[in-house]
From TrEMBL:
Main location: membrane
Protein's cellular compartments: Membrane
Secretion signal span: none
Organism: Gossypium barbadense
Keyword hit for Iron-sulfur: no
CC terms in the record's Gene Ontology section: membrane
Protein name per Swiss-Prot or TrEMBL: EF-hand domain-containing protein
GO biological process: phospholipid biosynthetic process
EF-hand domain segment(s): 501-536
């Protein structure tokens, strides 16, 4: 390294070449037919087979971008967090101390099981009496019925006692309902809903599936539960409206929500759903801790029977509940639920002394899917779904579909897929374009791809502004006789511009597109296949690049719009 003297500049002078990034932002008016004609065909016509090369983060040239004809500038994959918010630290019994303790506690566990069963039955019968003949579920429960529910609430405290929570440390106090109509809490175990039922008797927001749980379904109905189907936009909208209605009326109990939407191990907060924050009411956050040394009480990635058995066989289980100060939404935050949720999340994370990640219930779905298919490291398939949903508007169900596709590529124990298996599943022939498609996903250029790279790349292509128009043009090229169907021969004629020699690949691709297996590819089949396999759109780029669409495509583009 050359020596520096006192006259050497600390910063070198800027070079004459200044790399710049040009972003084209489309408003709604940009999707007029004339604008489409000047965007997609012009883009296609001004490119050839020597696709522009993308640059990696260090500025070095990488493989050609096979999606540049869609105006893709490449994508980046954020580094994965080392935090696993769903892993239970003690999933198995280990150590002499734990074995001896469980043996000694077995007689106690039997007594606790009897107490649990008796409390559940008595609470269930009291709830049935309180609900008998009550039909007006849109209005608050009458006071005399609420007094009967005190029997069930006392039974809930006995249930906590049977699980080993002989005393529960509290810090702070719940604010009056008139001041804080909404309370939110972190969600670590199935213990918190039982505690809040005893302590606050609130209205809760719960999944529709909870209604069918024996005994429990009846008891939570007495809490005037607000049911929601997390996968139904209509159900979520109705739930938000009901939260607003009940929170704004003091005759209803306060509304309790677990904004994380699922249980975690308590070592982190995951992303918040916005249902509690849309109404813009003052919120009191509550945090729950389970201090432990030998037994992690969190209902993470562990079965419920195993967790209950471990609770029954402990001398005592510790639980701490802390009521945090109220969070009042500013005038701006009343209109912006995202900011209100972020502010609440920061307060809770700070009190818990943990980080808040971008994981969501979708990551738990991916984790469970990978574990169900016996992957060696199922936790490596979590991708922090909240970030992907924000960037690309990909739902959790769509992410699980992409995981199904990825797992069919036979990833190795580390969760990586090699080019051969990638091309096999997508029915692609080994050629230059296929290598470019794989290289587009292989952002680290190590000859393999992870599920996170596959998902980010697929979502990036799927959400490109010109993706749908390219699908329309590609199908128009395949539908040579204009009958809204594509035959195997028509598909082969189009793909000869991509693959010089076509053997079994045409049959494989035809089967991939023929989703209903009726021997021909309809327009719906074609679009459904590309939505499920957006990377495959690149195989039509040579045909679209060669053909002059500036005139022939004008009328078709008008029809598309």
């Amino acid at each position: 390294m050359a020596e520096l003297d006192m006259t050497s500049p600390l910063l070198s002078s800027p070079s004459s070449y200044q790399p710049q990034t040009v972003l084209t932002v489309y408003d709604d008016q940009d999707y007029e037919p004339s604008n489409l004609q000047s965007s997609l065909p012009t883009t296609i016509l001004h490119q050839n087979h020597n696709h522009g090369r993308t640059h990696n983060e260090n500025g070095h040239h990488s493989s050609p971008n096979p999606y540049e004809f869609l105006r893709s500038g490449g994508f980046s994959v954020p580094a994965s967090t080392t935090v696993d918010p769903f892993r239970n630290e003690t999933p198995f019994i280990s150590g002499i101390y734990e074995v001896i303790k469980i043996v000694l506690c077995l007689p106690i566990a039997l007594a606790r099981l009897v107490l649990f069963g008796a409390s559940l039955v008595v609470g269930y019968m009291a709830t049935k009496v309180a609900l008998a003949g009550w039909r007006d579920k849109q209005n608050p429960m009458p006071k005399w019925r609420c007094r009967l529910m005190w029997v069930t609430r006392v039974c809930a405290r006995f249930i906590l006692f049977s699980f080993g929570y002989h005393w529960i440390r509290r810090k702070g106090k719940p604010a009056p309902r008139e001041i804080a109509p909404v309370v939110v809490s972190n969600h670590v175990s199935y213990i918190e809903p039982i505690f809040y039922f005893y302590e606050l008797f609130p209205t809760i927001v719960a999944s529709e599936s909870h209604d069918s749980i024996p005994f429990v379904g009846t008891i939570i109905r007495a809490m005037q539960v607000i049911y929601v189907n997390r996968f139904s936009p209509t159900s979520r909208k109705n739930a938000v409206n009901e939260i607003k209605r009940r929170a704004s009326c003091n005759v209803f109990p306060r509304v309790l929500l677990f904004p994380e939407g699922t249980t975690t191990n308590g070592k982190a907060l995951i992303s918040f759903q916005l249902g509690a924050f849309i109404a813009g009411h003052p919120i009191q956050p509550i945090i729950v801790r389970y201090p432990h040394v030998h037994f992690d009480q969190s209902w993470g990635f562990i079965s419920l029977p195993k967790l209950m058995f471990r609770m029954f066989t402990q001398f005592h289980n510790f639980m701490e509940v802390e009521y945090l100060p109220l969070i009042m939404p500013s005038d701006h935050q009343k209109q912006n639920a995202v900011r209100f949720a972020e502010r609440t999340g920061r307060a809770m994370a700070s009190a818990l002394n943990v980080v808040q990640t971008s994981h969501s219930y979708g990551d738990l779905m991916l984790l469970m899917k990978a574990a169900q298919l016996q992957q060696d490291k199922p936790w490596s398939y979590m991708v922090e779904m909240a970030r992907i949903e924000s960037l690309y508007h990909i739902s959790s169900l769509e992410a699980v579909d992409f995981l199904d596709k990825f797992l069919s590529m036979n990833p190795d124990p580390s969760g990586c897929v090699k080019p051969h298996d990638f091309l096999r599943v997508l029915q692609l022939k080994a050629c230059t374009l296929s290598e470019e498609i794989f290289g587009f996903l292989d952002v680290e250029k190590n000859g393999s791809i992870t599920f996170k790279q596959f998902l980010f790349g697929s979502a990036h292509v799927l959400k490109l502004p010109l993706f749908r128009q390219a699908c329309e043009l590609a199908f128009a090229e395949c539908d040579t006789d204009g009958d809204n169907f594509c035959t195997k021969k028509e598909l082969a004629d189009v793909l000869r511009h991509t693959f010089r020699e076509l053997d079994d690949e045409v049959q494989g691709l035809f089967n991939l597109f023929d989703t209903d297996n009726d021997g021909r590819i309809s327009r719906d089949d074609f679009f459904y296949c590309l939505r499920k396999n957006p990377l495959v759109i690149a195989i039509f780029s040579p045909r679209l690049l060669r053909k002059n669409l500036s005139k022939a495509g004008d009328k078709m583009l008008d029809d598309i719009v």
